[in-house]
Amino acid sequence: MSCSEVNKYLHEFMDRELENDLYHKLQKHLEQCVPCNRNYEFEKHTRVLIKSYCKNVTAPQYLHSRIIANLDSIDRELTIQSPRTRQKPLRIAFSPHTFAIAASLLLMIAGGVFYIANNRQEDSVSIVDDAVTNHVKVLNDNLVFNEKTSVVGDVNKYLSPNINTQLRKSITPLNIEQVRIVNDVPVNLCGTTSPCVVFNQGKNKLSLQIIRSRQFPISKLERTSFGPNEYYITNRRGFNSVIWRENDTTYCLTSDINTNDMLRFAATLSSR
User: Fold this and answer.
1) Average pLDDT estimate for 137-158
2) Which of 71, 88, 134, 139 is the most buried (most CB within 10 A)?
3) pLDDT for the residue numbered 264
């Protein structure tokens, strides 16, 4: 250790504030260096002299009061600022009652959606199933109309005006004795018209009916396009049904032939 370093750390050495390693190096240097040792002894005696003559010397009262007052103001500032600096994490506590209400609401919403979806699906299936039932009924009764006289524009003549939202609730089974051809148009002699118009296409027979349910969930069915028109197709009990809307009226064409041939025939009806 050099003499300049000894002078630098001398007061810390005398106050015993140096680390052990540095303290021993400086002590060893003082033992070997006469000028540094002389300076060290001078500083040591000076300290002893000051302590012996300044035992009763204290700071003035005004200075002492000012220091104490400043310490109090600092403590107050720390006390005020401490809640701001130490913010507790935000915790949102929910009671079991709140969780129970939330869970009940979710279950009610999910149940309502499930109920509506299932009911709409059942409505579409039941209505199409009724159309198939009517188709089979009129074919079994050999109630076949000529396609030249049974066009979409006149189909309302052959459908009962009292049909409710579902076909099976309002359709009365017909037999061939109730229908006569008058002026090339089939007419029901009992004062009501047939709920089903059947077209004879060679060996194939197609029935045309009107679905009067305004809530009929047609969007649940498979959608397809044929030419410029849009159709919905479905299958029940081996029979295909092609459904379309025209002038706020929903038509249902039913047969056991393939869907493409039915779409082609439906396009000729809807274009008239």
Assistant:
1) 48
2) 134
3) 85
Q: Using CA atoms, how far apart are residues 240 and 254, in angstroms rounded to an integer?
A: 6
This prediction's pTM: 0.40
What span, in angstroms and rounded, lies between the C-alpha atoms of 42 and 10? 12
Residue 187 token pair: 């007419």
In angstroms, the CA 265 to CA 206 distance is 9
Are 261 and 202 in contact by the 8 Å Cβ rule? The answer is: no
Q: Which of 174, 176, 171, 192 is nearest to 144 (CA)?
A: 176
Tokens of 147: 């396609």
Looking up tokens 């006469």 gives: 34
| 3-state SS class at 180 | strand
CA 140, CA 59: separation in Å to the nearest integer? 125
DSSP state of 59: -
Residue type, 103: A
Residues 6+ apart with CB under 8 A from 9: 18, 22, 26
